[in-house]
Specification:
By secondary structure, the chain is mostly helical. The chain contains 17 helices and no strands.
Length: about 450
């Protein structure tokens, strides 16, 4: 039997898991969600929900993965034999595959922008010019498919190397580089005249925005930013040593996710306010508004290139984890099959993602529930697949697994108190399901 791969160190696992969680959810989605939902109030609620809701589910996935010591499907089969619980793993794998199919499209957009940035083609335009450029890029069939293909090839080349030589090695480089680049950009953004208005917008809550809609949106952002609900972390935790502390890892990943979201806000909002733009520009904040903002800075082209490199790093680390869950289910810990299944799964995701890539151009006329193909794929995974998966995971750990077995797994490598453990179980049994149902209904 092939020897089970493991992370070489605790920090390697944390960086890889954090890379999976952060992605474009923290860097691309968080700023525009905060910008359209009151800034400081949204950020405050996001932090509360990440700690109280996201982290407990994350720890639950860690328990399943390390105790099962297998891929997302086999782990459930081992922990709950002769039952239907393993369908949680199949659901997570399917949802992950669909996410990768359109996620790679966004990765392609980033590559297109990065190429233009490095060649100087992103400088000297008006804000209307940047909006037109974005429309031109996403509607060009050859460019979007070619860039999507290149992004998927980069992802496959890392994942085919396995956990230690591929994902962990790449994450050990990409995540520290991401933090360093972010710090540089934060310093540059905060040095602008009038930047403090953006800082106040992000960090000083305006309680007039405190309402049910803002709370539900913040809960959804916290939930989806950690990539919980599709058993990605079940797969990652299956490579975790029994001597590593899972509660510490869950808190570290959650904390890093909050920290990166904070840095993203401190890069974007001070610059947006200092240069007279609006924070509620929506999804186009990164691709339309941000290039215009950097264009008005000294050395703006240089800093824009740095930001796009950072965004590419974050997107790739998430793509690694999404592809890994598919490869793990197919390869079943057989390292000889990893290479072929990495290319098989990756290329299938690329092919399935082509309609999403073309949904802003030649397939723009196709609508599903009044949504483009890209938006529909995002909708069914974010609003159905992930919430249902997370709900089932919380119920599986808190009701189906024996409490003593869960306690034993938690205690391996950590010293969580009985009181804290019982509080976590209570949150999984009651608080998390109610919160997920509220997000699902909304």
């Amino acid at each position: 039997m092939a020897k089970k791969e493991q992370w070489t160190s605790k920090i390697g696992f944390i960086l890889a898991a954090a890379g999976s969680a952060i992605g474009i959810g923290a860097i691309w989605k968080f700023p525009y969600m905060a910008g359209t939902n009151g800034g400081g109030v949204f950020f405050f609620l996001f932090i509360v929900f990440t700690i109280l809701i996201g982290a407990p589910i994350l720890l639950a996935e860690f328990v399943i993965g390390r105790r099962g010591q297998a891929d997302a499907v086999t782990s459930y089969k081992k922990l709950a034999p002769r039952s239907a619980w393993h369908w949680i793993g199949y659901l997570g794998t399917l949802v992950a595959f669909i996410i990768l199919s359109f996620y790679s499209v966004v990765g392609g957009w980033i590559l297109s922008y990065l190429f233009r940035s490095l060649t100087g083609a992103l400088t000297g335009k008006t804000q209307a010019g940047y909006s037109a450029l974005f429309e031109d890029i996403i509607s060009n069939p050859l460019e979007v498919i070619g860039a999507q293909f290149l992004f998927m090839v980069l992802t496959i080349m890392v994942v085919q190397g396995g956990v230690q030589k591929g994902i962990e090695r790449a994450s050990r480089f990409m995540m520290p580089a991401l933090f360093i680049i972010f710090i540089v950009l934060v310093i540059r953004s905060l040095s602008l005249e009038g930047a403090m208005e953006g800082v106040r917008f992000l960090l000083m809550p305006d309680w007039d925005y405190l309402n049910g809609k803002t709370a539900l949106v913040a809960l959804g952002q916290a939930f989806f930013a950690l990539s919980v609900g599709i058993s990605i972390m079940v797969t990652y935790a299956s490579y975790l040593s029994k001597t590593d502390s899972m509660p510490y890892s869950a808190l570290s990943v959650s904390g890093l996710n909050i920290f990166i979201s904070l840095l993203a806000g401190l890069v974007i909002f001070p610059a947006v306010f200092a240069l007279g733009f609006q924070p509620d520009a929506g999804p186009g904040l990164v691709f339309v508004v941000l290039p215009a903002v950097f264009n008005e800075m000294a050395f703006g082209g240089f800093f824009l290139s740095i930001f796009l490199i950072l965004l590419l790093f974050a997107t790739l680390t998430s793509a690694f984890s999404i592809l890994e869950i598919c490869v793990a289910v197919l390869a079943k810990n057989n390292s000889q099959k990893r290479l072929s299944f990495s290319w098989l799964a990756g290329m299938l995701a690329f092919l399935v993602g082509i309609p999403s890539a073309l949904s802003f151009g030649v397939l723009d006329h196709i609508r599903i529930l009044d949504k483009s193909i890209f938006d529909f794929a995002d909708f069914i995974t974010s609003n159905f697949g992930m919430p249902i998966g997370a709900l089932l995971i919380s119920l599986f750990v808190s009701y189906r697994l024996k409490k003593q077995d869960v306690w034993s797994e938690i205690q391996s490598g950590s010293t969580m108190s009985v009181g804290l453990f019982n509080t976590w179980i209570f949150i999984l049994r009651f608080i998390v399901p109610i919160a997920i149902l509220l997000v699902f209904i909304s």
